[in-house]
Amino acid sequence: MRTNLDKVINHFPDLAVLHHFMQQFYDLLDQADGESWTQEKTVARITRFISTYTQIWSESIGQAAERMERLIGFQGKKILLHSNSSSIHILFEHLATHNIFPSVYQTMSGPVYEGKLQARVLSDFGCKVHFINEAAIGRFIHEIDFAVMGADNVFEDGFTNKIGTYPLALVCREAGKPFYVICDSRKRSPVDFKSRIKAIFEPEEPSGELWQNAPHAITPVNYYFEFTPKDLVSAYFFEDTWWDLTKK
What we know:
The protein is 41% helix and 16% strand. The protein is built from 7 helices and 10 strands. It has helices at 2-11, 16-34, 39-72, 86-97, 115-125, 137-140, 165-175, and strands at residues 78-81, 103-107, 129-132, 146-149, 153-155, 158-162, 179-182, 225-229, 235-237, 242-244. The strands form 2 sheets. It has a 7-stranded mixed β-sheet with strand order 3-2-1-4-7-9-10. α2 (16-34) packs antiparallel against α3, α3 (39-72) packs across α4 and α4 (86-97) packs parallel to α5 (115-125).
């Protein structure tokens, strides 16, 4: 189990939630080894741990969603979304329970188009969803009120998220549209992203997702994540606080 889990961690070295979960999970496995738990007890404790962990952090995003809805308002708004984020799912589930159903502009989110998954979730909540190519954001930007993104890591100088987030943030700034980020406190890091540039960030993803059987002289280069500087962010929303970056 440890060997297989280490492979997952090494493949996603910058997913803060994964590392937060695995640190606590490995502590549980160490306790199981140290106290020689039976297989039955080990399975029961792992099941309880996963259930409790999921509940605690789902409630945390719910608290961030409540703060966000109270401070910026979603009723009757048109919102730009990108990729597929559990934080966004919980935010819109919270809105739906309060009979708030914003109109959504959901990007395809290439290269694997996970935006389709989020579009289905939000449409099931009752939102009207416009499904667009992120490359066409210039065509739609003046129709939206603001953008909301999840995050994989929040650093002192910005945040990491799905590839394509940075250009969306630039277009929002150019058009004068607020750009918000929602996530829980597990993803906050006390360091600058720039200080980690020499660290391993992300292995290259399968090139075939961009171009199957590309000609010999063409090399498809595929990555899933990128950094967006904080001067493009209007505000971060967490369960325990929020940061208004429009005020210096």
